[in-house]
Design goal:
about 110 residues; mainly alpha; two-stranded antiparallel sheet; 2 strands; about 50% helix; about 5% strand; globular
């Protein structure tokens, strides 16, 4: 996948947004490792990668990790919800409670730290 040494930020963002919104799970799975490399090179923000990763998990009917995906007005199922804010902080995302307020969704799971 081309990086920011070959593309400007707008062009790179267009690539990952197309992947993020792809209805094809196999297509997303194929390119997720390339997006991970882009994240590790610093070409992609960790929070953006987390969003794509959560979308893929949701499309596979698996629990999401970072709580970025909403389905039918509700937070899509979440792996270990008591640790979600710790995981979100690790990728530069704010607390889930604030994020979900934008969707009028309450999140009342007490948070823990590992």
């Amino acid at each position: 996948m081309p990086g920011l040494d070959q593309l400007n930020q707008t062009q790179f963002n267009a690539i990952w947004m197309v992947l993020h919104h792809s209805p094809e799970t196999e297509y997303m799975k194929k390119y997720l490792p390339l997006l991970k490399e882009a994240k590790e090179r610093g070409d992609m923000r960790p929070g953006d990668f987390a969003t794509v990763q959560d979308r893929l998990l949701m499309n596979q009917r698996k629990p999401q990790i970072y709580g970025t995906q909403i389905r039918r007005g509700k937070l899509y199922k979440l792996k270990d919800p008591e640790y979600v804010n710790q995981r979100r902080a690790q990728v530069g995302l704010g607390p889930i409670e604030g994020y979900l307020r934008h969707f009028n969704i309450d999140f009342t799971v007490e948070q823990k730290v590992k």
